[in-house]
Amino acid sequence: MDVTLEIRYFAAAQAAAGTASERFDCSSTDRISDLLGALENAHPGLGAVLPRCSVLLDAVAVAVTTDRQVGSASTVDVLPPFAGG
């Protein structure tokens, strides 16, 4: 089954992707790591940023290298580390 995700980029990830958000089609069986690889292919500048980013799948943190499937998620947030607190 195909899903359309809302990908939201923040701070350095936004600058690397050249956009604050986009709609991205993938399969519900794609793993998070597959999705991030596809995003990097679409936006090569993300390659330098993604390894340091946190990823939220429908507001729940997931490991960047996880085998977790996208499933029925609707939103992916890509968050680089932020200074301060």
UniProtKB/TrEMBL annotation:
UniProt protein name: MoaD/ThiS family protein
Organism: Williamsia herbipolensis
